[in-house]
From TrEMBL, chain A:
Name listed for the protein in its UniProt record: Succinate dehydrogenase/fumarate reductase iron-sulfur subunit
Source species taxonomy: Bacteria, Pseudomonadati, Thermodesulfobacteriota, Desulfuromonadia, Geobacterales
GO molecular function: 2 iron, 2 sulfur cluster binding; electron transfer activity; metal ion binding
InterPro entries from the UniProt entry: 2Fe-2S_ferredoxin-like_sf, 2Fe2S_fd_BS, 4Fe4S_Fe-S-bd, 4Fe4S_Fe_S_CS, Beta-grasp_dom_sf, Helical_ferredxn, SDH/FRD_Iron-Sulfur, Succ_DH/fum_Rdtase_N
Cofactor: [2Fe-2S] cluster; [3Fe-4S] cluster
Keywords from the named record: Iron, Iron-sulfur, Metal-binding
TrEMBL record, chain B:
Native source organism of the sequence: Oryzomonas japonica
Annotated TM spans: 12-39, 59-80, 101-121, 141-171, 192-220
The organism's taxonomic lineage, starting at the top: Bacteria, Pseudomonadati, Thermodesulfobacteriota, Desulfuromonadia, Geobacterales
NCBIfam families in the record: sdhC_b558_fam
GO cellular component term of the entry, any: membrane
Official protein name in the record: Succinate dehydrogenase cytochrome b subunit
Length: 252, 222
């Protein structure tokens, strides 16, 4: 590692003590950063310096650091997860930045996501949407034969594409209206596509879209910023599918 | 009713009323082109036949008024609801897919409302000054003379062209939005709808501005 050049970056980071604190930007310097650091590792370095100086470290969400858990949630230079295609913040690497860059780091900003501290927001509104209908009701008992219900491969694939959603909330953060249409669309679609989920499809889309509005999420105006922000590349076709399911439910 | 209590349902209503207006705008343009004289009697004959049965004219006007009103009402409501959907703006604005048209639907829409009111005062109620109103033997206004005399004025021609730019912006986002909101789009078809919608909006724009521009340029003369 010693043969690599290091970078020095200026970070302008949103600091906020709690939900009621108005919050403000503070400027930090990230030193001795190599291109191999992930974005979160870069923040770890900054936090180590802050701790040594006896200052409060920057608080941010993270967990698996391999792009599959959906915990990391930062808006970097205006783009959720930093704007690299299909990449979560933890998989964003410092090689995407240049020595001397200034980087703005902000939390997800949405009415339905109150800030807990600094870069951590409360995303439990997404859980509320899932609780409203993001499941199938089935009897427990003997394990069903895995191939008892045949599902065509293209259908299974499409359901899997929707199920790729890791629930990080980048779609909400990227949406100018703070809408959770892509999240809810993906969850409605992954179940509505499969035979096990079709039974409750009408009740599900009705309940989940209702919960979505009650949680304070905005409405869709078809900007498609959500798809651009999604680290899993969830397509807005699942919003169209949800709209279709919603329309069908009116006649159910 | 569940349909109207959900924003998805209200948007479906907006999509359907929007489609009605798009169809109106297409037929209106076909009617306008009669000013170039491709039917016998030109635009005067077209206007005469169009208004031949007043009850139908009024029924249609009431229908369009309802469609336009519902579309505007829900458009304003959705815009107000979406204000503050993002708790506060980001320090850096970095939209990746949103366009000028998609971000300004409420404003292009309200500008079009202003234009529609002006347009009705102009050619339907005929109360805007500065145009020649020449009645024929039966008392019907000569539409061709009225239109030509209006568009010889730079400001009137300018207002109409500017309004059609606004219409282009509104429809370039609106047409593809129709398919997405109705749930009729997929990852394969949506890019086609985006391109086709913009193309249709462009054709409508060119068709509509052809009339004031050809009159202002002196190609169509009274």
């Amino acid at each position: 590692m010693s043969d690599h050049k290091t970078m020095t970056l200026t970070l302008i980071v949103w600091r906020q003590k709690n939900a009621s604190d108005p919050g403000k930007f503070e400027t930090y310097t990230a030193k001795n950063i190599t291109e191999h650091h992930s974005f979160l590792e870069m923040l770890d370095c900054v936090n180590e310096d802050l701790i040594l100086e006896g200052r409060e470290p920057i608080v941010f969400d993270h967990d698996c650091r391999e792009g599959i858990c959906g915990m990391c949630s930062q808006v970097i230079n205006g783009a959720p997860h930093g704007g690299q295609v299909r990449t979560t913040v933890c998989q964003l690497h410092m090689r995407k930045f240049k020595d001397g860059d200034t980087i703005y780091i902000e939390p997800w900003r949405a009415r339905a996501f109150p800030i807990i501290k600094d870069l951590i927001v409360d995303r439990s509104a997404l859980d509320t949407i899932i609780q409203a209908g993001g499941y199938t009701s089935c009897h427990t008992g003997g394990v069903a034969d895995g191939n008892a219900i045949l599902i065509p491969k293209p259908v299974a694939d499409e359901a899997m594409d929707a199920a790729e959603c890791i629930g990080c909330g980048a779609c909400v953060a990227g949406c100018p209206n703070g809408a959770a249409m892509l999240f809810t669309g993906a969850k409605v679609s992954q179940l509505a596509l499969l035979p096990q989920g079709k039974t409750e499809a009408a009740a599900r889309v009705t309940a989940m879209t209702k919960a979505m509005a009650e949680c304070g999420f905005g409405n869709c105006t078809n900007h498609y910023e959500c798809q651009a922000a999604c680290p899993k590349g969830i397509n807005v076709k699942f919003i169209a599918r949800m709209n279709r399911e919603f329309l069908k439910a009116q006649f159910a | 009713m569940q349909l109207l209590s959900s924003s998805i349902g209200r948007k479906i209503v907006m999509a359907i009323t929007g489609l009605l207006m798009i169809l109106f705008v297409v037929v209106h343009l076909i009617g306008n082109t009669t000013i170039f004289g491709w039917i016998s009697g030109g635009i005067n004959a077209y206007a005469h036949h169009l208004h031949a049965f007043p009850p139908l004219v009024w029924a249609f006007r009431a229908f369009m008024l309802a469609a336009v009103s519902i579309h505007i009402w829900y458009g304003i409501q959705l815009t107000i609801e979406n204000r503050g959907g993002r708790s506060q703006p980001y320090a850096v604005k970095a939209t990746q897919k949103a366009t000028f048209a998609s971000e300004n639907m409420i404003w292009t829409g309200l500008l079009l409302l202003c234009f529609i009111i002006y347009h009705l005062l102009h050619f339907t109620m005929k109360v805007v000054p500065g145009m020649a109103l020449v009645p024929d033997a039966e008392g019907a206004i000569n539409v061709f003379t009225m239109v030509v005399s209006s568009f010889q004025n730079f400001f009137v021609a300018f207002i109409y062209v500017a309004a059609m730019v606004t219409l282009f912006l509104h429809l370039s986002h609106g047409i593809q939005s129709f398919f997405q909101t109705m749930g009729w789009s997929t990852d394969r078809t949506l890019p086609v709808y985006v391109k086709a919608g913009t193309l249709v909006a462009l054709v409508l724009f060119l068709g509509y501005v052809a009339v004031p521009l050809s009159i202002f340029a002196g190609i169509l003369k009274g």
